[in-house]
Each structure stands twice: as structure tokens, then as C-alpha cells.
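lol forgot to send this yesterday, sorry. C-alpha cells for the thing we talked abt
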């Protein structure tokens, strides 16, 4: 980023003090090959709650609440299969999503659960302002779980050269 594109700390604090126009993502829509398997995975691992599960005009879709304001909205479309594992930036319109862990303890618990599922897909990366790891969903979509460190600015650790792999104990 150029200096012209990077807000200074004073501007960042002013923006954070103002009420934003958005407060989260409402839903993310994607394709699944097996709705029952996908719903079971998110309910089992993430304590998600399925609030809608219906079929309309031959398409099955569901609302899977994974947080207080975040819903996964998968569709099962006859004859349409997700592409499976693909390299980053070759996965289509939505490359991946990252879910915020509510706390460091929740981050560790999700890591443990995904490891037990055999769905953990990376080591834990300390990016300075956050910890992150990747997982594979039942359709081989690669997504992430993030824990933002309290009191650490987003600028800390932005450069990949500063990242390091850490062990969770």
C-alpha cells in the first residue's frame, strides 16, 4: 500500500469512533453437494444453528447461523457440484471466508474440534494482530478461523514476511 492509501492512526481512531453503516456480514451464499452433511458439520463443529432448510423450485437451501449476525446460505443445486479443492484465487467468485472466533478460548476450541474432525488444513499463523488457521468444509472449500488480538492494531503484522507459525498448547 502506498502512504496515500494507508490511513494514519488518528484517522483510524476517528473512523472507529463513528457509528459504521454496516455491522457485519448478513450471509454468504455458496454451493454444496450434500446439504445434510454440510449442516451436520457446521452444527457439530461450530455449534451453528440451522434456522431455515427448505426446497423451492427444485433447489434446496438453508440458513446456518454461525454467529449472532453471520449466516451461511448454502444451496444444493441438482447437477451442480462444487469444484473441490482449488488453489487460492482459482476458487471462483468467492475464494474463501474467514469466521471470527469470539475469544482466544473459542479459537483454541474450534482448532481442537476441527483437528478431531480431520478438517484442519493448516498450522496456526500469528499475523501480529490476529491468529489464523484454515479448515476444509465437507465440500473441500478452504476457509479460515480468525481470532483478533485485543488492543493490537490491524497494521501490526500486515506483511507476510512478519508472520510466524505457532503451536497451540
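and heres what i got for the seq, position by position
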Amino acid at each position: 500500500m502506498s502512504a496515500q492509501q494507508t490511513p494514519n492512526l488518528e484517522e483510524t481512531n476517528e473512523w472507529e469512533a463513528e457509528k459504521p453503516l454496516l455491522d457485519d456480514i448478513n450471509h454468504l451464499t455458496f454451493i454444496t453437494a450434500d446439504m445434510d452433511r454440510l449442516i451436520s458439520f457446521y452444527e457439530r463443529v461450530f455449534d451453528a444453528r440451522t434456522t431455515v432448510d427448505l426446497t423451492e423450485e427444485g433447489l434446496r437451501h438453508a440458513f446456518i447461523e454461525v454467529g449472532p449476525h453471520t449466516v451461511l446460505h448454502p444451496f444444493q443445486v441438482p447437477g451442480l457440484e462444487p469444484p473441490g479443492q482449488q488453489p487460492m484465487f482459482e476458487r471462483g467468485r468467492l475464494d474463501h471466508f474467514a469466521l471470527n472466533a469470539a475469544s482466544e478460548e473459542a479459537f483454541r476450541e474450534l482448532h481442537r474440534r476441527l483437528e478431531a474432525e480431520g478438517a484442519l488444513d493448516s498450522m496456526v499463523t500469528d499475523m501480529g494482530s490476529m491468529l489464523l488457521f484454515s479448515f476444509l468444509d465437507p465440500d473441500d472449500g478452504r476457509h479460515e478461523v480468525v481470532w483478533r488480538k485485543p488492543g493490537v492494531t490491524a497494521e501490526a503484522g500486515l506483511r507476510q514476511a512478519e508472520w510466524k507459525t505457532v503451536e497451540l498448547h
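The longest strand covers residues 49-56. anyway ping me if u want another try
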